Amino acid sequence: MRFILDQDVPAEIGRVLAHAGHEVVCVRDVLAASAADDEVFEYAVEHGLVLATCNRDDFIGLAGTRRHAGLIVVIRRKTRIMECAKLLRLLNAAGETGIAGNINFA
């Protein structure tokens, strides 16, 4: 799968996704640091990227406005290892078709 990681997603998650064979782009590498959430969401939509974020409040609303490749809300856990494990478990269980166009929580 192809992902874009919002600025609030820990770098370790990006490394784990890349190690698992996924394509990973970070918002900070493609948009200005001041980019608004709607700009981030639009970039993900235009490029067919699954958006991973910890910012559920703003992105869930945006995801309801148009078709998208998928939104994954990463829930903060006690450790980064737990966050990564939950995300990988979600990806294995849902697969690309379960992620595409849906809002998922990991």
What does this structure look like?
- This protein has 106 residues and is an alpha/beta fold.
- It has one domain.
- The chain is 49% helix and 17% strand.
- The protein is built from five helices and five strands.
- It has helices at residues 11-19, 27-30, 37-47, 56-63, 80-99, and strands spanning 2-5, 23-26, 50-53, 71-73, 103-105.
- It has a five-stranded parallel β-sheet, sandwiched between helices.
- Helix 5 links the parallel strand 4 and strand 5.
- Helix 1 packs across helix 5.
- The longest helix is centred in the C-terminal third of the chain and has 20 residues, at 80-99.
- It is globular and about 30 Å long.
- The two termini are 16 Å apart.
Contiguous uncertain segments of 5+ residues: none
Side by side, the strands of the main sheet go 2-1-3-4-5
- Overall tally of domains: 1
**Which percent range fits the helix content?**
40-55%
One letter per element, helices H and strands E, the order comes to: EHEHHEHEHE
Strand content: 15-25%
Q: For the terminal residues, how far apart are their CA atoms?
A: 16 Å
Query: What is the alpha-carbon Rg in Å?
Result: 12 Å
Category from helices, strands and their pairing:
alpha/beta
The biggest sheet, with number of strands, parallel, antiparallel or mixed sense and barrel status, is:
5 strands, parallel
